[in-house]
Amino acid sequence: MNKCLTRWSLALATAVSVALPASADVLTLDVSGINSQDVIGSAANTVLNFNLGALAHINSLSWQVNLDAYNPSWLSELQLSLSGAQTSSAGLLLAPGAGSDFSGSQAFGGSIDLLDQGLDFSVGADGILRLEFSEAASDGLSPDGRWVSGQVVIDWTAAAVPEPAGYALFGLGLVLMAGLARSRKLS
Fold first, then answer.
1. Domain assignments of the chain as residue spans, ordered by start
2. Nearest of 185, 87, 181, 74 to residue 137 by alpha carbon
3. What sign does the dihedral 167-173-176-178 (CA atoms) show?
4. Which of 81, 83, 77, 19 is nearest to 46 (CA)?
5. Do 88 and 130 contact (CB within 8 A), yes or no?
6. What angle is formed at CA 66 by the lines to CA 61 and CA 68, rounded to 5 degrees?
7. In tens digits, what is the pLDDT along the chain, a chain of 187 residues?
8. Residue 60 DSSP symbol
9. Helix (H, G, I), strand (E, B) or coil at 15
10. Which pTM was predicted?
11. Is residue 69 within a helix (H) or strand (E), and if so which, with residue range?
12. I want to staple 35 with a disulfide (CB 3.0 to 4.6 A). Which of 11, 17, 143, 173 is the partner?
């Protein structure tokens, strides 16, 4: 009987792990017309909040954007911060024009697998992904530049949330484990 219960326990554990998959999703953001006003944290900056669900995990990022930096600002100064809370304290900073230390207009594209680079992060229990468009240096302009057109794509994974069938399997596992413990006690 113990071998039978052990096999059932293994089968149940496998079934529960299959019943609790994390779902992957993509957030595509049109950045056309968004201004970069001031340094991170300024009330003048454009801030967007997206509810991805509690503890959602940010996996990768890609972008194809056209930027315009107004003199004396540089293209390298236009940036987007992504954080896992409603403050800009943690997360990732994207500067698509990095290395373009001049004013003007230019297209930029790229991608980064945050998992491979060790830059992945999770949003908090509130489920909010906060995006803030800002400027790396305060040049006294308002705005310093504009995200003329393009998209930023964020690949994320929702935290695993058990479905009712998962709870049923878990409960069955507890019953089987209790039965196994009782049979061992009687032996």
1. 1-20+162-187, 22-161
2. 74
3. negative
4. 81
5. yes
6. 125
7. 455 444 444 444 444 444 445 668 999 999 999 999 999 989 999 999 999 999 999 999 999 999 999 999 999 999 999 998 765 556 899 999 999 999 999 999 999 999 999 999 999 999 999 999 999 988 888 899 999 999 999 999 998 755 555 555 556 666 666 666 666 677 6
8. E
9. helix
10. 0.74
11. strand 57-69
12. 143
112 three-state secondary structure: strand
Q: Are 63 and 93 in contact (CB under 8 A)?
A: no
Residue 136 region by backbone torsions, left for phi larger than 0, else alpha for psi between -120 and 50, else beta: alpha
Let me know how many helices (H) and strands (E) the chain has, helices first: 3, 10
Tokens of 53: 């669900």
Does the domain spanning 22-161 belong to CATH 2.60.120? yes
Q: Residues 84, 86, 90, 95: is their CA dihedral positive or negative?
A: positive
Residue 154 burial (10 A CB sphere; 0-12, 13-18, 19+): buried
Residue 145 contacts residue 9 (beta carbons within 8 Å): no
Cβ(39)–Cβ(93) below 8 Å: no
CB 47 within 8 A of CB 88: no
* Cα separation, 165 vs 170, whole angstroms: 9
